[in-house]
Design brief:
Its main location: membrane. With 244 residues, this protein is mostly helical. It contains 15 helices and no strands. The termini are far apart.
Length: 244
């Protein structure tokens, strides 16, 4: 932990602390929701620790609450959580090699992706990932336990506005990255795809359509590789051949 503090600046550490507190609040909302759906307290805490993916857990609990089969709820949660595949592609280069990779992969989620994406140095990115991952690993199950404790008092977490706190925080973290034209175009394309799919697909699935924004980045990278400057123009070869 001391080495992490030396690697990261105060702004990053403060961001992680704020993120962890927000996760704690949303975890309480999840705990209240899961308690009202009929899950025991130990089931809620174990799921929060093992799954460690808020949106998947909300989908799972939502299906259980309306009488859906647990297997169907688990499959729906897995579908929603496939977005972590994209996160793994972008953050895999920051993770330690060997067997620790499997342990570090458990910490891949929306929060660690948002914190790591703004770092350009590999050492700082890894430190930010580990610190934020540890914060989420503690705050999400703890928040879930708190939610269970107050579940008898607050029946509807939406009445407290807890569901809006975390999306607002993620939006705040993402805004600086939108200064790049390529990133802004990808965000607009992905957002439009997700919004268009919302009336047609079950809750939690439209966000997967936002991965369409990756096509903008892939196309831009392909165009750059195919430019004459990247491949070497005939004029350049002629200049090199006849140069004295």
């Amino acid at each position: 932990m001391r080495s992490l503090r030396r690697t990261l600046d105060r702004a990053t550490v403060r961001t992680v602390l704020v993120m962890s507190m927000s996760v704690l609040v949303i975890g309480a909302s999840y705990g209240v929701t899961a308690h009202s759906a009929g899950l025991d307290w130990w089931q809620i805490v174990v799921i929060a620790t093992v799954v460690l993916a808020g949106s998947s857990e909300f989908v799972f609990v939502g299906i259980i609450a309306v009488g859906g089969a647990p297997l169907l709820a688990a499959l729906a949660g897995l579908v929603v959580n496939t977005r972590n595949f994209g996160y793994g592609l972008s953050m895999g280069r920051f993770l330690p090699r060997g067997w620790p990779t499997a342990l570090a992969a458990h910490l891949i989620n929306d929060e660690t992706a948002a914190v790591t994406a703004v770092e350009t140095d590999q050492r700082r990115a890894r430190a930010a990932f580990l610190l934020c991952g540890a914060g989420v690993l503690v705050s999400w199950p703890l928040g879930s336990a708190i939610g269970v404790a107050i579940g008898e008092i607050v029946a509807d977490p939406a009445s407290l506005g807890l569901d809006a706190a975390f999306p607002a925080l993620l939006a705040t973290l993402a805004i600086p990255a939108l200064r790049e034209r390529k990133t802004l175009c990808a965000a607009l394309v992905g957002g439009a795809a997700a919004v268009a799919a919302t009336p047609l697909l079950p809750a939690g699935v439209p966000i997967l359509c936002a991965l369409a924004g990756l096509a903008v980045i892939a196309r831009d990278s392909g165009d750059r590789r195919g430019t004459p400057a990247a491949q070497g123009t005939p004029v350049d070869h002629q200049r090199q051949e006849y140069a004295p």
